[in-house]
């Protein structure tokens, strides 16, 4: 079945550092891909998405490109802030009208001032 | 702007007790979901519903039951709680296809089973 694998956490960076969180997936056909973010004490929120190969999703300075050849959707940000500290989840919705999302295990990010 | 509301936020149960978690949404969403979140395992889908009166099993349905008698409510029941069900439970909702990928989540319900 469909699955998502994220890099192991936790990840700790200093403010203004470059961020990459790796995400790879296994799915048949052409899934849609997403990054969700969970801030402390809150539910998950959609951060960005891409629905076809080579699409780039972006929001709040974060970017991720849908790479079908490497089955990847890595999250990047050029200069992180303390307020970016959260847990990040990669997710996919399978092709052919799949009715539910499949999530990765989450990566906890801590940014130190 | 309530969105998705979960009650209760915290609960402690003894093994064998029963309880129901309530999820309510005011966005007229068709689809509703119950996930559990455990350390190192991300979110796993328990049950979901694609409309009033319908339910379907997700990835980890054993030990749970659900009901969707009204479109705005999705109930998750534990008939005989076990320590393995200690977790944080998230309810989510979305419009139907093709917008089913944009989920709105509640703030979570933390359940501890002793």
Helix and strand arrangement:
The complex is a heterodimer of chains A (about 110) and B (about 110).
Chain A: E1 3-6, E2 11-14, E3 19-21, E4 23-26, E5 32-38, E6 44-50, E7 56-59, E8 62-65, E9 75-77, E10 86-93, E11 101-103, E12 107-112
Parallel strand pairs in A: 2-12
Antiparallel strand pairs in A: 1-4, 3-9, 5-6, 5-10, 7-8, 8-9, 10-11, 10-12
Chain B: E1 4-7, E2 10-13, E3 19-25, E4 31-38, E5 42-49, E6 56-57, E7 65-67, E8 73-78, E9 87-94, E10 104-105, E11 109-113
Q: How would you sum up this structure in a few lines?
A:
The complex is a heterodimer of chains A (113) and B (114). Chain A has 113 residues and is mostly beta strands.
Would you write up a description of this structure?
The complex is a heterodimer of chains A (113) and B (114). Chain A has 113 residues and is an all-beta fold. Chain A has no helices and twelve strands. In chain A, a hairpin with a 7-residue loop joins strand 10 (86-93) and strand 11 (101-103). Chain A is globular. Chain B is an all-beta fold and 114 residues long. In chain B, strands 2, 4, 5, 6, 9, 10 and 11 form a seven-stranded mixed beta sheet that branches. A four-stranded antiparallel beta sheet of chain B has the order 1-3-8-7, with no helix packed on it. The mean pLDDT of chain B is 92. At the A-B interface, strand 5, strand 6 and strand 11 of A face strand 4 and strand 5 of B.
Structure keywords:
heterodimer; A: 113 residues; mainly beta; six-stranded mixed sheet; four-stranded antiparallel sheet; 0% helix; B: 114 residues; 11 strands; globular
Total beta-strand segments of chain B: 11
Indicate the mean pLDDT of chain A. Answer: 92
Number of helices of chain A: 0
Q: How can the largest sheet of chain B be summarized?
A: 7 strands, mixed
Tell me the helix content of chain B.
Answer: under 10%
Overall residue-averaged pLDDT value of chain B: 92
What letter string, H or E per element, gives the SSE order of chain B? EEEEEEEEEEE
Gap between N and C termini of chain A, in Å? 41 Å
Q: Could you give the distance between the termini of chain B? A: 36 Å
What structural category characterises the helix and strand content of chain A? mainly beta
What's the Cα radius of gyration of chain A? Answer: 14 Å
Percent strand of chain A equals: over 45%
Shape, principal axes of CA atoms of chain B: globular
Model regions low in confidence, pLDDT < 50 over at least 5 residues of chain A:
none
Helix fraction bin of chain A:
under 10%
Strand content of chain B: over 45%
Structural class of chain B: mainly beta
Q: Unreliable stretches of chain B, pLDDT < 50, 5 or more residues?
A: none
The number of helices of chain B is 0
> Largest interface, by Cβ-Cβ below 8 angstroms: which chains and how many residues each?
A-B, 22 and 24 residues
């Amino acid at each position: 079945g469909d699955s998502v694998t994220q890099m192991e956490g936790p990840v700790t960076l200093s403010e203004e550092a470059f961020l990459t969180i790796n995400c790879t997936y296994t799915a048949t056909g052409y899934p849609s891909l997403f990054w969700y973010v969970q801030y402390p004490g809150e539910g998950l929120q959609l951060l960005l998405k891409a629905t076809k190969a080579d699409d780039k999703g972006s929001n709040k300075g974060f970017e991720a490109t849908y790479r079908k050849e490497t089955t990847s959707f890595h999250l990047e940000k050029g200069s992180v802030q303390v307020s970016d500290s959260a847990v990040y989840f990669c997710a996919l919705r399978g092709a052919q009208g799949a009715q539910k999302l499949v999530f990765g295990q989450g990566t906890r990010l801590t940014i130190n001032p | 702007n309530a969105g998705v509301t979960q009650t209760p936020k915290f609960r402690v149960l003894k093994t064998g007790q029963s309880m129901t978690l309530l999820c309510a949404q005011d966005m007229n969403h068709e689809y509703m979901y119950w996930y559990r979140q455990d350390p190192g395992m991300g979110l796993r889908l328990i049950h979901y519903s694609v409309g009033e009166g319908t339910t379907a099993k997700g990835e980890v349905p054993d030990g749970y039951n659900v009901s969707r008698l009204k479109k705005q409510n999705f109930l998750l029941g534990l008939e005989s709680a076990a320590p393995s069900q200690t977790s944080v439970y998230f309810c989510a909702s979305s419009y139907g296809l093709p917008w089913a990928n944009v989920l709105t989540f509640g703030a979570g319900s933390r359940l501890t089973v002793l």
